[in-house]
Amino acid sequence: MKFSGRLSAVAIVSLIMIGALLGGVLGNWLFIYFIDRYYDISGGNYLSSAFAPHVVTRDLEKQAHINASLSGAVSAADQSLVGIFKRSPLYRPTNKVGQALIVTSDGWIMTTEKADMFERQSDYVVVASDKKIYEIDRVVEAMPSITFIHIAKASNLPVQDLIPVSRLSFGEMVVAVDWQTSLDQGIISGRQATLRSSETVLVDIPVGEIEQVDGFLFDSMGRVIGFRQDGKSYSIETVNNLLTKLLLANKITFPRFGVTYINTDILSVETTQGALLTSDGTIPAIVPGSPAAKVELKEGDIITVFADVPVESGVDIASLVMRYNPGQTIPLTVVRGKESRRMTVTLDEQSN
Question: Cβ neighbours of residue 213 under 8 Å, at least 6 residues apart?
Answer without folding.
Answer: 176, 177, 178, 182, 183, 184, 228
